[in-house]
Design a protein that fits this description.
Shape: globular
Radius of gyration: 15 Å
Helix content: 10-25%
Distance between the termini: 21 Å
Number of helices: 5
CATH class: Alpha Beta
CATH topology: Protein Transport Mog1p, Chain A
Largest sheet: 7 strands, antiparallel
CATH superfamily: Mog1/PsbP, alpha/beta/alpha sandwich
Oligomer: single chain
């Protein structure tokens, strides 16, 4: 399955996630993973929320039974799985991280994001791209897609990090209310720091 197909899957995940909300990812290309999106407008519109825990004692380890990836998440957050998607969600603010995967990975995380952007922009209000750019993540070839959009009464901010590992394509899709974006960056960084792809 190509990266573009993965992105489409991620988008479907996001659209079906109006229970969640957001696109899917290029990992799949992953994000708008589900790889791009995730998080529901209703939940995302909630106010409040906590900042990222700063010690390992404040976080819970998680191992994915399908792929074997590992990650840690704040103890107060919930975990939900649905097919290739794993969502870690803050019950207070509605912010969430969605991990999506596809096998085999497509050839270009950046290309997947550009392909997925067309459909996402056409079906989501007030879409604005901030950037789509190649990068590296933990030594893997990667691309980040950062954007804003509106769902219901909520203005949302997203970063979808898609990357290619030897066995899978992954996407880490992080979404918050626009007003929470800056203060939640330490949480997103903690997720990225703790993620380990399966060997």
């Amino acid at each position: 399955m190509g990266v573009a197909a993965l992105v489409v899957l991620a988008l479907i995940g996001v659209l079906l996630a109006t229970r969640n909300s957001g696109p899917r990812s290029p990992a799949s290309s992953s994000s708008p993973t589900t790889a791009a999106g995730a998080g529901s407008p209703t939940t995302a519109a909630k106010k409040g929320g906590s900042t990222a825990p700063t010690t390992a004692a404040d976080r819970t380890p998680y191992t994915d039974p399908q792929t074997g990836f590992t990650i840690s998440y704040p103890k107060s957050w919930s975990v939900r799985t649905d097919g290739t998607l794993t969502d870690f969600r803050d019950p207070d603010s509605g912010a969430y991280l969605r991990v999506d995967h596809v096998q085999p990975a497509g050839p270009s995380p950046e290309g997947a994001w550009y392909d997925l952007e067309k459909s996402f922009a056409a079906t989501n209000a007030n879409y604005q791209r901030i950037r789509i750019e190649p990068t590296t993540y933990s030594g893997y070839r990667a691309a980040v897609w950062e954007f804003t959009y509106s769902a219901g009464a909520a203005d949302l901010h997203v970063a979808d990090l898609g990357f290619i590992t030897p066995r899978f394509g992954f996407a880490l899709y992080f979404q918050t209310r626009a007003g929470d974006w800056d203060r939640m960056q330490s949480t997103f960084q903690s997720f990225k720091d703790s993620f380990k792809a399966p060997q």
